[in-house]
């Protein structure tokens, strides 16, 4: 049961308020990849929290929800290797609408490496 908890994504870990999203967007640093954009903010108020965004340019609600599910699953699987002393927002890009999970994971790991968010194992 303890191993399962490591992979869960709880409500406390997710950025919920528009104010927190705006803070990360405006004061955070962005890292752009082919499939994703990652915003990173070192702020005590939002430490360890993550948000997911998919704009209307990506397509209808079904497509946007699939993109957000892909990003959530990617983070859920990779979170044990990501530093948790900052707030993150993952934003989906057009390439993500047709992407597979392994591609998204690879892209996320590359952005984490560039943002120096990886934990060395």
Give a quick set of tags describing it.
4 helices; single chain; alpha+beta; Ribosomal Protein S5, domain 2; 121 residues
Tell me about this structure:
The protein is of the alpha+beta class and 121 residues long. It has a single domain, classed as Ribosomal Protein S5, domain 2 (2-Layer Sandwich). Helices cover 40% and strands 17% of the residues. Strands 1-2-4-3 form a 4-stranded mixed beta sheet, sandwiched between helices. Helix 3 crosses helix 4. The two termini are 22 Å apart. 27% of the residues are buried.
CATH architecture assignment name: 2-Layer Sandwich
| Uncertain spans | none
Structure class: alpha+beta
Strand content: 15-25%
Topology:
Elements: H1 2-7, H2 18-27, E1 29-32, E2 36-41, E3 50-53, H3 61-78, E4 87-92, H4 101-114
Parallel strand pairs: 3-4
Antiparallel strand pairs: 1-2, 2-4
Helix pairs in contact: 3-4
Brief synopsis:
This protein has 121 residues and is α+β, with helices and mostly antiparallel strands. It is built from four helices and four strands.
């Amino acid at each position: 049961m303890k191993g399962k908890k490591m992979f869960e994504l709880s409500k406390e870990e997710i950025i919920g308020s528009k104010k927190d999203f705006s803070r990360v967007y405006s004061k955070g640093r962005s890292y752009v990849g082919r499939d994703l954009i990652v915003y990173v903010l070192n702020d005590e108020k939002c430490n360890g929290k993550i948000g997911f965004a998919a704009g209307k340019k990506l397509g209808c609600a079904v497509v946007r929800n699939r993109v957000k599910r892909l990003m959530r699953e990617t983070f859920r699987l990779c979170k044990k290797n990501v530093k948790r002393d900052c707030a993150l927002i993952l934003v989906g890009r057009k390439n993500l609408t047709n992407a597979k999970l392994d591609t998204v994971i690879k892209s996320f790991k590359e952005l984490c490496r560039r943002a120096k968010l990886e934990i060395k194992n």
